[in-house]
Amino acid sequence: MRTIPFARKKKFSTLTHPPSHLRRMNNETPAAAVAPDRRQQWVSLLLSSVSSHSLLEILAMSRPPHPAAKLAVAERITESSRAAFGQATSGDPVETTVAYLADLLTERADQLRARHALTIDPTVDPAARERLARCLFSVEGAVELLGDEGQGEGFLALCEGLIAVALMRGYRAESLRAPVARYLDGPGA
Length: 189
Fold this sequence. Notes:
The chain is elongated. It starts with 19 loop residues before the first helix and ends with a helix. It is mainly alpha-helical. Helix content is 62%, strand content 0%.
């Protein structure tokens, strides 16, 4: 009986052959054709990969994520943002805002990092970019919270800035209470 010698395995670079958890997210199958539960797993994998790996590492892959996957990430963040806002809603706009910002900074920090990474990604198509711009905060929600249509846009700009600074500097949500209260009390208050 003749034995066949084992072939030597080649070693590959992670830039030309990314790890298996990154290769799995590069499935070129359109998002709509993937089964719903599998699609949710796929979006979760992409969301965690974008937030935990550098954007350059992901862009260096041989096949970057499908545009539909980026849109699905924006939709997932939008859905969880609306649910979190509904849970944080109380009678006081300051308390509601601080509770929502606390949820963003603690429970959904991966989503924040993924959103920021995809926002600066030049390969994101305009539809996904528009969804990413509106996935954390909505003008309708701000108007409902404040009861004033004129303050909605400015309040969203304040919240976007507070979240960006808090994420970069590691601030806790409680430290954002003072700027939110100052804005809502108005000038000179």
